[in-house]
Design goal:
single chain, about 625 residues, mainly alpha, 27 helices, about 65% helix, about 5% strand, globular
């Protein structure tokens, strides 16, 4: 499956989850009603009917409120999950060798896949090999690994594990996993209430009604076990397929199965395996983990059997080979850092960055097929892009006080009068110091920053930007809007980059509010398509005839039976303000057609420059269809 098919499948899984939840609730209500009939069935029929109605409504209410409460507790997104599991954030400027290696791997895969660099956490006290990704969208995602994974996996294996987690970020699994936590918590609420009553209730002495309270508590506990059964079945049914798909996607990310299979072999070969021992709530998040963190098997297993996962990557691998690895690692536990030294994994990439005017051969289907699916050289290319960003800018991207002016400098115009207006807007909202720094760094960016480095620099800076207090982030998004709308003369790339920053900051501030799969069809957003394609065509051509051909090439892809004339908006790029939300709400498979239409308009002659390719990547990122850097091997 490609990205859009994965997204569509995730939406279907969300619907399936709702259905399973409803069935589980009905089963629990039925169990409560049966228990009530057994205990209180001797009364009159009318009284029993009223009691059953009350207990049914109360049961549904308890389950629903429990689910809503748990989901609300995770409204902060991925960071909430990581902190609840005891994760410790990895500093952007860490000097710890293992943490630096982890950060490098995460940054490279994020840039190769075209998404913001997520925040990184480590479960310091877990010796097993495990990891998870959590969040509602790429903008609020976190990736967490255990200390055991850092110590025992070499770079190749760590890359495979992180790629597996990135597939969850891109395919829509994360938001499904968080909702699953909330759903299952609600199902387990009655059992939790029953246990609390028995633990803290007073049932002795002259306490009238103590017997009835105890009976109610025991019924709640028994029903709670029924809920636990349903919950584990739902979790296993939803999770196993998604984990198999994530393994396959991870191999697509890295284009080699050895790293991922090596990590799985080490899970099977070391004594700690992938278990999480320090946290009592490991079962609640077991469906989110890279490896089985609890030890369930059979019907309740959240992951396919370990040997099956390895054999899917290496068909010739046998069970006796895993036994041999176990014996070897009992005698000499694996050490990932020593393996890196022996295998030479820390060599930086050396791919040459192309000239901004260099032409690439592209086709719309080729581009849509690359969304969220890095090509064979993209991982090394991302490594080279990061390594080639000037040291000064990379250092600024890790500093809390510098990250806002750095990102605003990417949006400044080079014309003196327009930039002066933009600096006034920045100073009015964020202060003179931010305005001066942005203006100071703009000339260096113009001469030292390659077009391929602008989006990666923003991606590297984003985790630090997210650390700023909410009022400052609100002021930042307001400033970005003011800068790109200062007089309507901002370039299309700078406008789209500014919009992307606004979208990412907004989603990181209120992640649960923007986590949804779209359902609109292309026929419902005809005018928005026409506006977007007209702006793209007008911005990319000096003559009206060529612009019209580009516009028609895009419209032919998305709305071949409609005849909307080419009409460049009078307010230029600012007309795009009205198109983003309707287009972003498209059904996943409709978005595939949208990406092809945008590509056709940008490359109606079959070729695009590197600068145009970066514009295409930025537009797709705004619409949550991330593209890797550069669209083909040069």
């Amino acid at each position: 499956m490609n990205f859009f098919e994965h997204q569509a499948a995730a939406r279907k899984t969300s619907t399936r989850l709702v259905v399973l939840f409803a069935l589980a609730v009905l089963g629990i209500v039925a169990a409560v009603d049966v228990a009530v009939l057994i205990v209180f069935g001797g009364g009159d029929a009318q009284g029993i009917a009223a009691l059953l109605a009350f207990t049914s409504v109360a049961t549904i209410g308890i389950i629903g409120l429990g689910s809503l409460f748990r989901i609300a507790s995770l409204r902060g997104g991925g960071e909430s999950v990581a902190l609840q599991l005891g994760g410790e954030a990895v500093p952007e400027n860490t000097t710890d060798t293992q943490l630096r290696r982890l950060r490098n791997v995460v940054e490279e895969i994020a840039i190769a896949s075209g998404v913001p660099v997520p925040r990184i956490y480590v479960l310091e006290h877990e010796a097993g090999i495990n990891a998870f990704a959590a969040g509602y969208s790429p903008s609020d995602a976190v990736v967490a690994v255990t200390r055991g994974a850092l110590e025992k996996l070499n770079r190749d294996e760590l890359q495979g594990v992180i790629a597996h987690e990135f597939s969850h970020i891109l395919n829509g699994d994360m938001r499904l996993n968080i909702r699953l936590i909330g759903v299952l918590f609600g199902i387990l609420m009655l059992g939790l209430i029953g246990r609390k009553i028995l633990q803290h209730g007073r049932f002795g002495g002259r306490n009238k009604g103590a017997g009835a309270i105890m009976i109610v508590a025991l019924i709640a506990i028994i029903v709670g076990y029924i809920g636990l059964f349903f919950g584990r079945m739902i979790k296993a049914g939803v999770s196993r397929t998604r984990e198999s798909l994530a393994d396959a996607s991870a191999v697509q990310f890295t284009r080699q199965a050895v790293g991922l299979s090596g990590a799985l072999k080490k899970i099977g070969g070391i004594g700690e395996g992938s278990r999480l021992n320090e946290r009592g709530d490991a079962e609640e998040v077991s469906h989110m983990l890279f490896g089985d963190g609890v030890g369930f098997s059979g019907l309740f297993a959240t992951h396919p059997p370990l040997l099956q996962r390895i054999q899917a990557l290496e068909p010739s691998f046998r069970a006796d080979q895993l036994d041999e690895l176990q014996r070897r690692w009992i005698a000499a536990p694996p050490n990932g850092m020593k393996e890196d030294v022996r295998l030479g994994f820390d060599v930086q990439g050396t791919t040459r960055l192309p000239a901004a005017s260099q032409q690439l051969n592209v086709t719309p289907p080729m581009v849509s097929a690359q969304v969220a699916l890095p090509a064979p050289d993209d991982y090394k290319r991302a490594d080279s892009i990061v390594a080639s960003i000037p040291d000064e800018f990379r250092a600024l991207a890790t500093q809390r006080d510098a990250v806002m002016p750095l990102l605003l400098a990417l949006l400044l115009d080079d014309a003196g009068d327009l930039q002066a207006n933009q600096r006034v807007e920045i100073a009015a909202r964020l202060g003179d110091a931010v305005a001066q720094s942005s203006a100071q760094w703009r000339p260096q960016m113009k001469t030292q920053l390659h077009p391929l480095q602008r989006l990666p620099l923003a991606a590297l800076a984003f985790p630090v930007l997210r650390l700023r207090p909410r009022p400052e982030l609100d002021a930042f998004t307001d400033t970005v809007h003011a800068v790109i709308n200062s007089d309507g003369e901002v370039s299309l790339f700078e406008y789209c980059l500014g919009r992307l920053l606004q979208v990412q900051v907004r989603e990181s501030l209120d992640p649960s509010q923007y986590a949804r799969f779209g359902r609109r069809k292309t026929g419902n957003v005809k005018r928005e398509f026409a506006t977007l394609l007209a702006v793209l065509a007008h911005a990319g051509h000096n003559d009206a005839a060529s612009a019209q051909r580009a516009y028609l090439a895009g419209m032919q892809r998305v709305l071949p039976r409609d005849h909307l004339p080419y009409l460049p908006p009078t307010n230029g790029v600012l007309a795009l303000d009205a198109v983003w939300e309707p287009l972003d709400a498209l059904d996943p498979l409709a978005k595939q057609v949208m990406v092809e239409a945008i590509t056709a308009a940008v490359s109606h002659d079959g070729r695009v420059s590197v600068a145009e390719a970066e514009l295409l990547r930025t537009i797709c990122a705004v619409l949550h269809c991330p593209l890797p850097p550069m669209l083909e091997r040069l």
